[in-house]
Amino acid sequence: LKEENASLRSKINKLQMLSETQADKMKKLERKLQENKIKEEKEAQDLEAMVQHVEQNLQLMTKRAVKAENSAAKLKQENALLQVQLKNYKTENEALRLGQSSSLAAVKRNADLALQNLLTVITNSQSSIKQLVSGAESLQLVADLLKSIDRISEVSEDGQ
């Protein structure tokens, strides 16, 4: 019986040691489990924060993309308008070039016509000037005759 008791005590001691070892292991595992839970919660929070940050960035990028699309559409409209204006200006420029050529020809014709009219006026005025000079000479002769007649009449009235 003593031997059996000693054997049982030995087994009990071994079992107690085994139980203590397992209790220590269990405490370590519980701590590890708790640490893992905390770590997972922190990772989940970090992941949630990262997801929120990515969502915010996505919203900002979406706003920027919409703004860029609107800006691009406006620039396309402005470009189309400028293309139309450029085409109109080119057409107007070409018309002005053609008009300038025809205007230059018209100016030359007008200048030639004005020159011919001027030459005619000069010729006519020379003739008129000659007539005026001739008329003035005639008037001078008449005036001289009238003076002579006045003298003759004065001399005749005095001489009577």
Automatic annotation (TrEMBL):
GO terms for cellular component: centrosome; ciliary basal body; early endosome; midbody; recycling endosome. Residues 12-92 form a coiled coil. The keyword tRNA processing does not apply. One of its GO terms (biological process) is positive regulation of protein localization to cilium. It comes from the Eukaryota. Keywords: Coiled coil. PANTHER family: ENDOSOME-ASSOCIATED TRAFFICKING REGULATOR 1 (PTHR31259), ENDOSOME-ASSOCIATED-TRAFFICKING REGULATOR 1 (PTHR31259:SF3). Belongs to the ENTR1 family. This is Endosome-associated-trafficking regulator 1. It comes from Dryobates pubescens (Downy woodpecker).
